[in-house]
Structures are given as C-alpha cells and as structure tokens.
Amino acid sequence: MKVLKSLNNSLILCQDNEGSEVILMGKGLGFQLKKGDTVPLEKVEKIFKLDSLSSTLKTDYIHLFENVSDELIINVKKIVDYANTKFEYPLSKNLFFTLLDHIKYSIERSKNGIVFQNKLLVEIQKYYPKEFSIGCYGIEQINKELNVQLPEEEAGNIAFHIVNAQDEQTNMEETIQFIRMLKDVLMILSYLFPEKEVDKESMLYLRFVTHLQFFLNRMIKAEELPSKDDFLLNSVSNRLPKELEAAKKIKEYVEKELPVTVNNDEILYLTLHISRVY
Q: Which InterPro entries match (predicted)?
C-alpha cells in the first residue's frame, strides 16, 4: 500500500492494491511515513476501509481523524473491540466512527462545563444491561487514560450507540414500523423545508437521523422522556418558530400512528436538532 496522507501520528490515509482508499492504524505510522512511501504491513494494527462510504462522509471521517488525539483513537478502538466480544454477531463497522465523533464532542463539552443529562439512564440500565456495562467500561477507560471526568450519563449514551450498531432486530414488526415512520418523518421535513438542500451524506445529518432513530424507538416502545423543560421550550419558540412548528407536525404524525403522547421535552429536542440541519 502507498501512503496518500499522514492524518496524525498513528493514522495514515493509503491506497490499497485495488486502488481503494483505506485508513491504516499503527503506533507511530503517521510519524514515520510520508506521501508515496510503501507501508510496512507488519506495523499495521487495524484497517478502516472507506470504499463503501460516500465522498462526503469519507471526507467527514478523514477530517474527524485529523482532529482527534492518538490517545482518543486508541481508546475508542479498545471500547469497540471490547463491545464486539460481547455479541455473537458483528456490530456495525460504522460504530468506531460514530463513537469516536460522539466521545470527542462529549469531552469538549465536559471541559467547557456543559453536561447533557441523560434522562433515560435508568431505563437504559434496565432494558440494555449488556450495552450499559460496555458504556461503563468505555467511560472508565476514557476517564482513566485521557484524564477527563465524563459522567455516568455518557455510559448511557455509549450504550445507545451500541444498540444502534446491532445488526439483528428482535422484533421484525417493530422494525418494519420503525423504518416506515423514519421515512415518513424525513419526508415531512423535506416538505416543510423545500428550499433547504440537506447534505444527506454529512456527519451532521447522520447525527440528526440518529436522534430520530432514538426518538422513534422510544415512541414505539412507549419509553418517552419525562417532561420538565417547558421553560426552555417557551424560550425557543420565539427564536426557532419554524423549527418548532416542524417538531409539532412530527408530534401530530407520531400520535396518529402510535398510542402515545409526545411531550414537551421530546418537542424541545426535536426542535433543536431540526435547527442544526434545516
């Protein structure tokens, strides 16, 4: 393999023998090699194939690797490797990227004194004990090795990523319903924001879709958030009126499809996520 670009001390972007782009991980690889060099494969610890990704998402992932520390990459890899030992079937190959992106921003928020409360922490512990135990392992690993103080709530967030990375679904009927509703919600948004050209291959859009996935899963399982943030919802009504109206349209749709009530916390978080993409 030939080096195309050094991303950091441990990662290099390469072209394999078939002409496809791959990212190679190995201690000191990025420090030792330069463009055009042949990679000593005995020093490669992990290969990330990019051929199945869109050009936009590929660019996002490369940019992500360029802006994280070697220590974070190594420790997220440990979390993913550990998670894969706990299941009989493989987790999604995208788990490494999505988890790296999530933990990177969690650390940044923590250092800035911003903590997002995970109001489903108890439910995650109850319904996803294996995934939550992986999340606890991950937080312990990150806090110890990177000298940060991520809270227990982040173990729940990691657990959600593990759940989302599982290829097998235990309830096919719920899966079919979930896919149909996700498609409908995205169609509602495209109708409400016809002028907006959304890059559906970007990481920002993927984060938004991930939130919708968690939201719809909660609605299907009737595990909605407890509603406490009426004040915050009122505060965004003047600042984000169009986005709030879109969130209310989604609420109306979900309540027609399911025997649930979408409360104000759910509307608030939908509004904020919609504002970032639309």
A: BglG_antiterminators, CAT_RNA-bd_dom, CAT_RNA-bd_dom_sf, PRD, PRD_sf
